[in-house]
Specification:
By secondary structure, the protein is mainly alpha-helical. The chain has a domain at about 30-75. Helices cover about 60% and strands about 0% of the residues. It has 4 helices and no strands. The longest helix is centred in the middle third of the chain and has 19 residues, at about 30-45.
Length: about 80
């Protein structure tokens, strides 16, 4: 499992947060790694505005959204 660069208030890493996302089909290692990298990049940008993953949790499932984006890209590039 990819750990990731950020942690939430409970000490869970960005990689652990992506790994915890529940979808109908299992998450592959490649999807988890790509979604974790995307989540870390987005959190790095958010930090510059004083926003953390805990702040975002109040309004959006960012780890899940990152995984969904990666899966959508994968489906469109493998056709």
């Amino acid at each position: 499992m990819m750990i990731g660069q950020h942690t939430d208030r409970k000490g869970r890493s960005s990689g652990e947060r992506v790994a915890a996302v529940q979808r109908a089909t299992p998450i592959t290692d490649a999807e988890q790694a790509a979604a974790t990298r995307l989540l870390d990049a987005m959190l790095h940008a958010a930090e510059q505005h004083g926003v953390s993953l805990d702040d975002l949790d109040w309004t959006v499932d960012l780890p899940g959204a990152c995984l969904d984006v990666i899966r959508t890209q994968t489906r469109h590039t493998t056709r």
